[in-house]
Design brief:
Radius of gyration of chain B: 17 Å
Strand order of the largest sheet of chain A: 1-2-3
Number of helices of chain A: 3
Structural class of chain B: mainly alpha
Helix content of chain B: over 70%
Oligomer: heterodimer
Distance between the termini of chain A: 175 Å
Largest sheet of chain B: none
Strand content of chain B: under 5%
Number of strands of chain A: 3
Mean pLDDT of chain A: 75
Number of helices of chain B: 9
Shape of chain A: rod-shaped
Chain lengths: 146, 174
């Protein structure tokens, strides 16, 4: 048999019919298998859609909560009596770090105002004693009567 | 890769329902699988699996040729997977629907039977190349795409296959 003869036979076989019962079995099997896959696929899509919706809801909630501090809070009108009943707490001063802050300068001792006292000596000379704020400094004035 | 290329980036789609595609392609798919595998039971399994894969892909094709190319590729792959567990070759003349037409009667059922049995003795890739190129009438490029090989390889496979067939028929091994 030559190549051309073989090719001629092959061409004749091209349109050969196939057994109808084989075709029927294939159709039936394909129909059964695709029907079996369809409900599962529908169920999977429903679950996926539900999960996506839930995730979207959670995202919206998280986003809305995160955006609340950025908005200025409205001032609620509170009754005065309630404000008096519950006074606001005193402002908390920030903690003082002693080590970093320089010690305050000592306040000068309160001294009495300059006091002038007159004394007399035994000889009759007049002495005026003036006290200054510095206890170590006393001014004495001696009257010269000569 | 060929399947992906055929199924994507295509400007126009084949507007057919899955059932319509099955009706149009069932004979081609079943016959091709039978030519490669040599028995109707395995061919039915392959045809069924090919259509189920088509259904799973929900594929849309640019045209009928793209769909046909995809189907041929799937058939060949399924047949190659089955070659280890394939049932014995079943002569075509035993097929219940092998009604001889006037032309096939003229050629002679005996010659056809001998040629098909010689075809069954070829390596499966050479057999697939002959089935797609010579029996199904695909071009060399289409055959290469379906087999996942180059056109040069296909030409070489067909040349070798025809030489082997000639030798088998000449030696009268059948």
């Amino acid at each position: 048999m030559t190549d051309d003869e073989m090719r001629g036979i092959f061409r004749e076989m091209r349109d050969e019919p196939v057994p109808p019962d084989s075709l029927a079995r294939v159709r039936e099997s394909v129909a059964v298998r695709t029907r079996q896959e369809r409900p599962w696929r529908g169920w999977a899509w429903k679950v996926a859609a539900a999960l996506a919706a839930a995730a979207s809801l959670v995202l919206v909630l998280v986003w809305s909560r995160a955006s609340v501090p950025n908005q200025p809070p409205p001032a609620p009108p509170a009754p005065i009596a309630r404000e008096e009943a519950t006074p606001p707490p005193p402002p908390v001063e920030p903690p003082v770090t002693v080590a970093r802050r320089a010690p305050p300068p000592p306040e000068p001792p309160v001294r009495p105002a300059r006091r002038v006292a007159e004394e007399s000596t035994a000889g009759g000379a007049r002495v005026i004693r003036i006290e200054t704020p510095d206890p170590d400094v006393v001014i004495l004035l001696l009257e010269d009567r000569s | 890769m060929l399947e992906a290329a055929l199924m994507t980036d295509l400007p126009r789609t084949v507007e057919l329902t899955f059932d319509e595609i099955v009706r149009r392609r069932e004979v081609q798919v079943l016959r091709t699988a039978y030519r490669i595998l040599g028995n109707w039971a395995d061919a039915e399994d392959v045809a069924q699996e090919a259509f189920v894969r088509l259904h799973r892909h929900k594929a849309r094709f640019a045209n009928d040729a793209a769909l046909g190319g995809w189907l041929y590729r799937v058939i060949v792959n399924l047949c190659l997977d089955r070659r280890r567990s394939a049932r014995p070759w079943q002569p075509l003349t035993e097929a219940p629907s092998a009604r001889p037409t006037a032309e096939t009667a003229a050629i002679g059922e005996e010659r056809k039977r001998r040629l098909m049995e010689a075809l069954a003795k070829l390596p499966v890739k050479e057999r697939a190349a002959v089935v797609l190129r010579e029996i199904e009438g695909l071009s060399t490029a289409e055959t290469a795409a379906a087999l996942g090989s180059s056109e040069v390889t296909v030409r070489s496979q067909i040349s070798k296959a025809l030489a082997r067939l000639r030798n088998i028929l000449k030696r009268g091994e059948l």
